[in-house]
């Protein structure tokens, strides 16, 4: 027998050094040095910030739960929830219109998205707040006919309504594209199968397409929600008493500008951190179908070859039977 094919016996009482079960990644000194250096710099920076009196940490602690700050925080959270709900609802309608074969609906939705995504949000908020300059009164009239009802614009467009309208209409344009992308990510065969089972297009969209599209819609929607929390700070320019406006009103009296801005920064970071955790749970909820499909057993000797059922999707069959 050739010496190249001769197999040496394993040492008595020991494991074969060529056995991959005993293989392990080599210890990397460079990675340990890099981690040590990074943690050292971060610790040094944290120590400098914590011991810098110019940050005014006692002032931050004093005003962190101040009633004025908490009131502004509630306003920011309320604006975020209301604007996001309206924006998602309008965005869904706009996305459906963009995917429609009707040329008028498609064109109007595209024009809306083009305008509100192409102009700064701050300009839109100021425009809505000063709407009375263009239209002193808001009226409901019959075209070329009598006026049915009329209101003074200043009594209708308050800082609150201007903030809600500006934030919601701007958010709807972005949500429309997010939802449209999610709907396009669903295989077209899903809709065709649902129609073959006799489901209407609206029911197929509600029961089949949208639930599957949520896996692609939820992550960017979570990003939009976090962006909305920060975007509410823009309403301070129209005298809306949000979180930023509240801390500004305090440091205008105390002249503690940096500490009060840190109060707002810490609150924004705390809220966005909580939202990030919630977004992670929602993403895992809507991806549970992928986890189930990856755990399906494969036939012996055919690893990596999934079993493809010949029957239609049980979800579609169940929904069509209702």
TrEMBL record:
<dbReference type="InterPro" id="IPR035906">
    <property type="entry name" value="MetI-like_sf"/>
</dbReference>
<dbReference type="GO" id="GO:0006865">
    <property type="term" value="P:amino acid transport"/>
</dbReference>
<keyword id="KW-0812">Transmembrane</keyword>
<protein>
    <recommendedName>
        <fullName>Glutamate/aspartate import permease protein GltK</fullName>
    </recommendedName>
</protein>
<keyword id="KW-0813">Transport</keyword>
<keyword id="KW-1003">Cell membrane</keyword>
<dbReference type="Pfam" id="PF00528">
    <property type="entry name" value="BPD_transp_1"/>
</dbReference>
<comment type="similarity">
    <text>Belongs to the binding-protein-dependent transport system permease family. HisMQ subfamily.</text>
</comment>
<feature type="transmembrane region" description="Helical">
    <location>
        <begin position="257"/>
        <end position="282"/>
    </location>
</feature>
<dbReference type="GO" id="GO:0043190">
    <property type="term" value="C:ATP-binding cassette (ABC) transporter complex"/>
</dbReference>
<feature type="transmembrane region" description="Helical">
    <location>
        <begin position="225"/>
        <end position="245"/>
    </location>
</feature>
<dbReference type="InterPro" id="IPR043429">
    <property type="entry name" value="ArtM/GltK/GlnP/TcyL/YhdX-like"/>
</dbReference>
<feature type="transmembrane region" description="Helical">
    <location>
        <begin position="156"/>
        <end position="176"/>
    </location>
</feature>
<dbReference type="InterPro" id="IPR010065">
    <property type="entry name" value="AA_ABC_transptr_permease_3TM"/>
</dbReference>
<dbReference type="InterPro" id="IPR000515">
    <property type="entry name" value="MetI-like"/>
</dbReference>
<keyword id="KW-0029">Amino-acid transport</keyword>
<comment type="function">
    <text>Part of the ABC transporter complex GltIJKL involved in glutamate and aspartate uptake. Probably responsible for the translocation of the substrate across the membrane.</text>
</comment>
<dbReference type="GO" id="GO:0022857">
    <property type="term" value="F:transmembrane transporter activity"/>
</dbReference>
<feature type="transmembrane region" description="Helical">
    <location>
        <begin position="70"/>
        <end position="97"/>
    </location>
</feature>
<feature type="domain" description="ABC transmembrane type-1">
    <location>
        <begin position="73"/>
        <end position="276"/>
    </location>
</feature>
<keyword id="KW-0472">Membrane</keyword>
<feature type="transmembrane region" description="Helical">
    <location>
        <begin position="32"/>
        <end position="50"/>
    </location>
</feature>
<keyword id="KW-1133">Transmembrane helix</keyword>
<feature type="transmembrane region" description="Helical">
    <location>
        <begin position="109"/>
        <end position="129"/>
    </location>
</feature>
<comment type="subunit">
    <text>The complex is composed of two ATP-binding proteins (GltL), two transmembrane proteins (GltJ and GltK) and a solute-binding protein (GltI).</text>
</comment>
């Amino acid at each position: 027998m050739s010496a190249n094919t001769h197999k040496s016996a394993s040492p008595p009482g020991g494991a074969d050094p060529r056995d991959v079960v005993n293989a392990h990644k080599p210890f990397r000194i460079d990675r340990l040095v890099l981690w040590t250096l990074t943690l050292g710099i971060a610790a040094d920076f944290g120590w400098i910030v914590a011991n810098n009196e110019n940050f005014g940490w006692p002032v931050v602690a004093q005003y962190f739960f101040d009633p004025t700050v908490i009131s502004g925080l509630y306003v920011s959270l309320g604006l975020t929830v209301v604007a996001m709900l309206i924006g998602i609802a309008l965005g869904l309608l706009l996305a459906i219109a963009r995917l429609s074969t009707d040329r008028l609906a498609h064109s109007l939705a595209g024009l809306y998205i083009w305008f509100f995504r192409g102009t700064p949000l701050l300009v839109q908020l100021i425009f809505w707040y000063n709407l009375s300059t263009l239209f002193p009164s808001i009226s409901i009239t019959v075209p070329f006919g009598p006026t049915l009802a009329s209101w003074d614009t200043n009594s209708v467009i308050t800082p609150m309504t201007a903030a809600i309208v500006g934030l919601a209409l701007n958010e709807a344009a972005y949500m429309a594209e997010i939802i449209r992308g999610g709907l396009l990510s669903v295989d077209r065969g899903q809709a065709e199968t649902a129609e073959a089972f006799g489901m209407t297009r609206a029911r197929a969209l509600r029961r089949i397409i949208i639930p599957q599209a949520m896996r692609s819609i939820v992550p960017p929607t979570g990003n939009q929600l976090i962006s909305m929390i920060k975007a509410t700070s823009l309403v301070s320019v129209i005298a809306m008493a949000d979180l930023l406006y509240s801390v500004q009103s305090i440091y205008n009296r105390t002249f503690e500008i940096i500490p009060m801005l840190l109060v707002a920064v810490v609150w924004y970071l705390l809220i966005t951190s909580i939202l990030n955790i919630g977004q992670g749970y929602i993403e895992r909820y809507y991806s549970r179908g992928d986890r189930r499909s990856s755990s399906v057993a494969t036939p012996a000797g055919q690893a990596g070859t999934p079993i493809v059922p010949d029957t239609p999707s049980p979800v579609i069959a169940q929904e069509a039977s209702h």
